[in-house]
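The pair is set out directly below:
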Amino acid sequence: MKTESLWVLGHKIRPLDTDASYGMVEVISPPHVPGPPPHFHKRESEFVLVVDGTLDVMTNGDWARCGPGSFLDLRPETTHTFINNTEEPVVWLTGWRPKGFERFFRDFGVPATEARAQDRSVAEDVVQRVVQNVGRYGMYVQS
């Protein structure tokens, strides 16, 4: 089943079909677009697999440059974020076990087929709605 791409907080997201045990999305991070504020998930394990390009990933305060084939396994309560500090888009996969967090992208995404979707995905009202609701998705911003 082909799933429509979405723009979420400046990143192009394509939800991927999985079995009932985990959720996964493909992410295309444009140059210099930051990820979310440092955050953690209380119950989900998350992974990151870089497919193409170089992604800088912070885990528990330490930054690492992750090139193609890099794999990170983030246990629950691991504070993390990311940014593409290069001049080319980065393609990467991320997923969660147990399944559920991927609905965050569907709920806050702007369909890529809509006009100015990337810009609209970072509009102040969208960002505020995300900040006010992230706890509902098991995502906790590090304070």
